[in-house]
Structure formats: structure tokens, C-alpha cells
């Protein structure tokens, strides 16, 4: 009986395995006919529509823009000063009898940058030459040329030229680094001339004139040649030349006299009270130019008591382009036998100290202070001079550049 049950269970198991195998084969054939199947995906659902509503601010906003920071009081340096441009001496002119010669440095404005030659004209006339070594532009014109203007007064007539500088743009840019400059150049000429080279000397003199000459003094101030032998025929100098002066007093029937140069003042017009002015000699015979500028100006040793010679290095005022100087000197005469003193000296500054032309150096020690005034006992009655009582005047024409002898004399 047991055997029958076991056999029956084995039989049922074989049938179940055969049925399973059959089902598997059927499923495989079905899958081959249908092809590959995609994985299951759940159905998609659309999101619900969102209703947009405009926000309505029922209450005012509490936020505000932040306040700007408070402005601080500007702090400036206490000693700040705007830089003041310094005047430059870049133009020189010499006026001839019928023409003018002008030289302009290419560093026209004194900035260290040379200007273009084409940007500088003399009344519309371009430069006739250029010195590449000295970096100087040269202009020449007749007095009636290059747009000159002629003006006349009772005593003089003046030709005025204009030197123009108009900067052009730098390269291909529209900028310039300069400003337009116009410089007036004037040539002054006297309409009346004194053809006499000195005072008239009549062959006879009445008794009255002789008597008057004993009570009068005649002073003169003359420009001399380099060898001091003759009167200089021209009053034109180049800057840096030595101007040689000789002051003298006419003896006539007086006892021997000694002439003293108390002071000398330079102006651009014949008036000692105008500015600019330069007192290059003062304090009763102290030649200050050599001390103030380091020049070689000096008194020369005397050969005659009634004459005194001194030389001054030519100069000009920094803001004056006229090229003219008017020098006025105050002269005094004393008896030649008078003793030397603080007010009777010819002092020059050299090698760091004052020296007297006659060797009396101790009388020059007052040149840096006050030498006082001449005493009445030594001072003779002042007479008349051809120029202006005891103040003879000499007018000079100055020109040139820093290159000695670059312009024609």
C-alpha cells in the first residue's frame, strides 16, 4: 500500500514538471512573436493650473534707501601754493638801421620741450635759418616787412613786430600741450640826433663866462672802447659784454678835483623813479653788481683824479623785451687833496671780499652796511652837466642770447 502511494506521488510530480515545461515553452514562443516590451510607466497627470493674482500692498513699505554719508570737511595742506610760472628769456632781437634780427630758442616756453619750427613766425614770416647746436630759430626782416607797425611821437618813431607761436596738434591726436603766445618786439629810433660828439669849445670866452666857469662844474659819463682810449661810437651791446664807463669832471680854473661816483641806477625808461630799476652802484662808491650777480664788474685803478673808470657786465631786465637800458649816475667832485674815507672810495667785490681800486680796502668795509653821506666841507658846489645837473644819463641798446657773439654787431 505504501508502495502504491509513493508511486502515485512520483507520477503526479512528473506530470507537474511536464506541464510546467510546456507552459514555459508556450510563454517563450508568445514572447518571440510579440517582441521586447517597454517597462511599465504609470500614466502622466497634468499639474493643476495656478491662478496668478497681482499683489496689492495694503500698507506702506517700511524700507527706505539708506542715507548718504555725511560730507567731510576737505583737508588741504596748510602751505599749499600754486606753482607760479617763471619768466624765461628765450627771445633776443637787434634792431639795425633798416632791418631787425630776431633769435628765438626752440624751448620757447621754458618747459624743456622744443617747439616745431613751423609753429613760430615773425608777423607771418617763417624762420630764415636754424642753429641746430644751440637750438635757436633765426628771423630777419626789413623794418617795413613781416607785418610791422610804425608809430611816431614827437621824439621817436617805433617799428613793432609780433612773434607768434601757435602750437599744432600732437601727432594724429587732437590735443596740444602749449598755449598761443605773442611777443611784441619794438625797435625805437630817435627822430632828432645830436651830431656833436662833445661840448662846444669856443676859441674865446668873455670875462663873464670865465667867472661863471669858476663857480660851475661840468660832469660827463661816456662809454669807452675796449682799450679805454676813445669814446665808443655805438651804444649797442650783447648780453655778457663788458660796458666800459668813464666819468669825469671838467677842471676849468678850479684847483685840482677828484670825481666820485656815488650811485648808478638802470631803468628801461629815462626816469630813475620808475620800475623796474637796478641800483648796481651805490653807498658812495660800492659797485654791487659783482656781489649780487657774481659778475666781473669792477672799478679800475685811477690814472687821473678827475676821471674814474669802471666796467659793468651787460644785462637786461627779465620781463622787458625792448633791449634798452637808461643808466643814470650821481657824480660828485671833491678837492683832489682830500683824504680818503668811507665816502671817497672806488670799491669792487672780488674773491669774496671788498677791495678798493687804490688799495685802501678798509674803507670798503662799510659797503655791506651804511657808508654815510659826504660831509659838507668836502663837497664842492655842484655844477651843470650836459645831461641833467650832476646826474649824467647814458642810453644803451642791449641784445643777444646766451651764445656770446652769436648776433651781428
Automatic annotation (TrEMBL):
Organism superkingdom: Eukaryota
Keyword Transmembrane helix appears in the UniProt entry: yes
GO biological process, one term: egg coat formation
Domain ZP span(s) in chain numbering: 94-354
Comp. bias regions, Polar residues: 391-409
SMART domains: ZP
GO MF annotation terms: acrosin binding; structural constituent of egg coat
Membrane topology: Single-pass type I membrane protein
Region annotation Disordered: where it falls in the sequence: 390-409
Name of one Pfam family that matches: Zona_pellucida
Family, similarity comment: Belongs to the ZP domain family. ZPC subfamily.
Function, in words: Component of the zona pellucida, an extracellular matrix surrounding oocytes which mediates sperm binding, induction of the acrosome reaction and prevents post-fertilization polyspermy. The zona pellucida is composed of 3 to 4 glycoproteins, ZP1, ZP2, ZP3, and ZP4. ZP3 is essential for sperm binding and zona matrix formation.
Domain comment in the entry: The ZP domain is involved in the polymerization of the ZP proteins to form the zona pellucida.
Protein name listed in UniProt: Zona pellucida sperm-binding protein 3
Organism: Nothobranchius furzeri
Amino acid at each position: 500500500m505504501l508502495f502504491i502511494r509513493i508511486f502515485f506521488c512520483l507520477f503526479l510530480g512528473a506530470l507537474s514538471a511536464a506541464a510546467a515545461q510546456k507552459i514555459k515553452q508556450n510563454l517563450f514562443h508568445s514572447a518571440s512573436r510579440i517582441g521586447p516590451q517597454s517597462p511599465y510607466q504609470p500614466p502622466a497627470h497634468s499639474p493643476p493650473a495656478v491662478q496668478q493674482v497681482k499683489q496689492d500692498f495694503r500698507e506702506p513699505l517700511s524700507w527706505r534707501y539708506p542715507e548718504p554719508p555725511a560730507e567731510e570737511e576737505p583737508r588741504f595742506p596748510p602751505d599749499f601754493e600754486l606753482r607760479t610760472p617763471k619768466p624765461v628769456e628765450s627771445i633776443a632781437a637787434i634792431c639795425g638801421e633798416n632791418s631787425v634780427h630776431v633769435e628765438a630758442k626752440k624751448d620757447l616756453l621754458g618747459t624743456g620741450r622744443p617747439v616745431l619750427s613751423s609753429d613760430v613766425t615773425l608777423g607771418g614770416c617763417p624762420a630764415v635759418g636754424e642753429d641746430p647746436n644751440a637750438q635757436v630759430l633765426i628771423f630777419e626782416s626789413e623794418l617795413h616787412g613781416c607785418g610791422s607797425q610804425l608809430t611816431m611821437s614827437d621824439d621817436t618813431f617805433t617799428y613793432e613786430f609780433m612773434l607768434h607761436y601757435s602750437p599744432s596738434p600732437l601727432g594724429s591726436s587732437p590735443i596740444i600741450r602749449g598755449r598761443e603766445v605773442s611777443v611784441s618786439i619794438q625797435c625805437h629810433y630817435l627822430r632828432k640826433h645830436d651830431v656833436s660828439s662833445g661840448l662846444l669849445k669856443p676859441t674865446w670866452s668873455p670875462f663873464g663866462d670865465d667867472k661863471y666857469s669858476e663857480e660851475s662844474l661840468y660832469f660827463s659819463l661816456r662809454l669807452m672802447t675796449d682799450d679805454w682810449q676813445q669814446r665808443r661810437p655805438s651804444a649797442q651791446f650783447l648780453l655778457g659784454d663788458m660796458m666800459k664807463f668813464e666819468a669825469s669832471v671838467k677842471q676849468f680854473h678850479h684847483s685840482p678835483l677828484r670825481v666820485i661816483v656815488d650811485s648808478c641806477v638802470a631803468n628801461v625808461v629815462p626816469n630813475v623813479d620808475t620800475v623796474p630799476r637796478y641800483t648796481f652802484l651805490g653807498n658812495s662808491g660800492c659797485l654791487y653788481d659783482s656781489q649780487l650777480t657774481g659778475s666781473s664788474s669792477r672799478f679800475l685803478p685811477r690814472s687821473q683824479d678827475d676821471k674814474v673808470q669802471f666796467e659793468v657786465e651787460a644785462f637786461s631786465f627779465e620781463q622787458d623785451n625792448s633791449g634798452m637800458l637808461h643808466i643814470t649816475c650821481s657824480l660828485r667832485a671833491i678837492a683832489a687833496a682830500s683824504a680818503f674815507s668811507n665816502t671817497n672810495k672806488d670799491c669792487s667785490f672780488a674773491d669774496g671780499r671788498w677791495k678798493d681800486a687804490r688799495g685802501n680796502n678798509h674803507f670798503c668795509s662799510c659797503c655791506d652796511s651804511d657808508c654815510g653821506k659826504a660831509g659838507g666841507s668836502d663837497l664842492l658846489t655842484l655844477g651843470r652837466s650836459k645831461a641833467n645837473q650832476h646826474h649824467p644819463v647814458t642810453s644803451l641798446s642791449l641784445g643777444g642770447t646766451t651764445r656770446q657773439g652769436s648776433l651781428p654787431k
